[in-house]
Design goal:
Radius of gyration: 24 Å
Number of domains: 2
CATH topology of the largest domain: Rossmann fold
CATH architecture of the largest domain: 3-Layer(aba) Sandwich
Structural class: alpha/beta
CATH superfamily of the largest domain: P-loop containing nucleotide triphosphate hydrolases
Shape: globular
Helix content: 25-40%
Distance between the termini: 54 Å
Largest sheet: 6 strands, mixed
Oligomer: single chain
CATH class of the largest domain: Alpha Beta
């Protein structure tokens, strides 16, 4: 593989970090103290003008600290040259900032070239990174940014930020300019990537739902650059520290708790599966043993096709007679809130759940989600048998 061995993530510490612009009556960031443990995502969130982007930009010295300090590991960012620091910290922004007249490969290779890597090493690293963010290197490396969709450009932005394997990444509204469907997909893919890479990440957003989904810890900032609360998402939702935090998190805190769980975290229901040509007697036996009494037709790879109608079971062998397509399909890595939204939009009680290869992994039912909403502990959702009793 090209590039260095994976760097270990570093703890990031804000120590009474303050930014005061001359002539301004109040600080942009006022005495911010918090620690981001190595390998975790800290989301800075709050209303416009609360200092969240300023706080993030102080990490790579795009904005210099007035007083206090920020430490990467045990070393102050003030002891590092800004240009050197920025080459070692990945940076992803909403507008992506790709160079329009450079190919995708050249964009991803920006920092390795500055560091004087040889051509072979750069080519190898670029291909590795494009593969990592789900873009086929042979198709993408020679294209230009204008030839890519917004979602593809954003992936290239992430690949470029990962180019020299930084221990820390800064992400400023990285998915803000993407349409909702691609935004959800990119969020999920980035979380999968982070589970593998374990970078220390500071992520800025104005969207509390995105903060709850993406963050291991959330820092809610308020006007005047002050920290209102710093806690894991579950703690924010269960125990807001002030009226400001309570209002900012929103009245639908129970619903937001669904954003703390992924579909894979709960006990999925089983559907009686069948393929075209299966014995109908055998399928009826499967129905008796499953949580749902409607057979789900799958192809030879286990990909769901649709819910079988009674007509499909009239002969000795299963025929492709569907009452409806298997829609929506839900990904194991989807968060429950998004899955609920998909089921409601499709006006259905059940959604087939698929793994990364598109194979059936179970069925998500509205009943399980409804139960999850009423449970205080977000990790304690009952099995189908408990709900049925």
């Amino acid at each position: 593989m090209g590039g260095p061995a994976h760097s270990s993530a570093e703890t990031l510490t804000f120590r009474d970090a303050t930014k005061h612009y001359p002539g301004s009556p109040t600080p942009a960031v006022d005495g911010l103290s918090l620690e981001v443990p190595a390998g975790e995502i800290c989301v800075l969130v709050g209303p416009s003008g609360c200092g969240k982007t300023t706080a993030m930009r102080m990490v790579n010295r795009m904005i210099d600290i007035t007083s206090g300090d920020i430490l990467l590991g045990d070393r102050s960012v003030k002891d590092r040259k800004p240009a050197e620091l920025r080459r070692e910290i990945g940076y992803v922004i909403q507008q992506i900032g790709l160079f329009p007249h450079r190919t995708i490969a050249d964009n991803v290779a920006t920092v390795p070239k500055l560091l004087g890597w040889d051509k072979k090493r750069i080519t190898s690293r670029v291909d590795e990174l494009l593969e990592l963010v789900g873009l086929a290197p042979h198709e993408m490396r020679s294209r230009f940014p204008a030839q890519l969709s917004g979602g593809q450009r954003q992936r290239v932005g992430v690949a470029r930020a990962l180019a020299v394997d930084p221990s820390v990444m800064l992400m400023d509204e990285p998915f803000g300019a993407i349409d909702p469907i691609n935004r959800e997909r990119l969020q999920n893919e980035f979380l999968r990537l982070q589970a593998e890479l374990r970078k220390t990440i500071v992520f800025v957003t104005h969207d509390i739902d995105e903060a709850i989904k993406m963050g291991d810890r959330i820092a809610i900032m308020q006007e005047g650059g002050r920290l209102a609360q710093y806690a894991p998402p579950a703690e924010l939702l269960m125990s807001p520290a002030s009226e400001f935090v309570e209002d900012f998190v929103g009245a639908d805190r129970a619903l937001k708790r669904l954003a703390l769980q992924r579909v894979r975290d709960i006990d999925l229901w089983t559907a009686p599966t069948c393929r075209v040509g299966d014995s109908t007697d055998e399928v009826r036996r499967r129905i008796a043993d499953a949580d749902i009494d409607i057979p789900l037709l799958v192809d030879e790879h286990g990909h769901p096709i649709g819910w079988l109608s009674e007509r499909g079971l009239t002969g000795e062998r299963v025929r492709e007679e569907l009452r409806s397509r298997a829609e929506p399909t839900v990904d194991l890595d989807d968060i429950l809130r998004d899955a609920l939204s998909d089921l409601l939009a499709a006006d259905t009680l059940y959604g087939p759940v698929v793994d990364a290869q598109g194979r059936l992994a179970g069925v998500l039912s509205m009943q399980v989600i409804s139960s999850a909403l009423t449970i205080t502990d977000p990790g304690n959702v009952p099995a189908p048998a408990d709900l049925a009793s």
